[in-house]
Amino acid sequence: MTAGRETRSDTTPPADRILPGGDGLGGEFYAQAAQTGVLHLQRCDDCATWRHPPRVLCAACGSSRWSWQPTAGRGRVFTWTITHRATDPAFSEHLPYAILVVELDEGPRVVGNLLNLVPSELRLDLPVRVVLDHRSDTVALVDFAPE
Ligand SMILES: [Zn+2]
């Protein structure tokens, strides 16, 4: 690793990111964020348990009744991986970059890119906030920046 390359701290995610598909509950997850400007997760209408990734039934009570609910958009770094070698050339100029697993204040863990911090400065439990990367009327990607 070249120390001079580990300086990415801009607030602009790569424009050439691969976008997720728009079908099913996964598509609804990205569309909710795109259309409201707020990260939404499923929440059970019977026992109020939050869940992610999206699924049909509540793992806590088995209910099929749920709704998309807005999150506070805050959490803490649970774990991460740093990519130093791009398998897709579209990402080669963004190396190294970190992908985080963040435990939201609501409980579920969500995956997203790191913004505004060099990957070598990551630490467990670092407080972060959600930054949505609006790409279309049906897709907003989830990123995280330090509080
Ligand atoms: Zn439930």
Question: Mind explaining what this structure looks like?
Answer:
There is one protein chain. It is built from one helix and eight strands; from the N terminus they run αββββββββ. It is mainly β and about 150 residues long. The protein has one domain (about 20-145): OB fold (Dihydrolipoamide Acetyltransferase, E2P) (Beta Barrel). The strands form two sheets. Strands 4-5-6-8-7 form a five-stranded mixed β-barrel. A three-stranded antiparallel sheet has the order 2-1-3. Strand 1 and strand 2 form a beta hairpin. The protein starts with about 25 loop residues before the first helix and ends with a strand. The protein binds zinc ion.
Count of DSSP strands: 8
In CATH's first tier, which class applies? Mainly Beta
Strand order of the largest sheet: 4-5-6-8-7
Bound ligands, named by name, code or SMILES: zinc ion
Q: Distance between the terminal alpha carbons, to the nearest Å?
A: 27 Å
Strand content: 25-35%
Short note summarizing the structure:
This protein is mostly beta strands and 147 residues long. The chain contains one helix and eight strands, in the order αββββββββ.
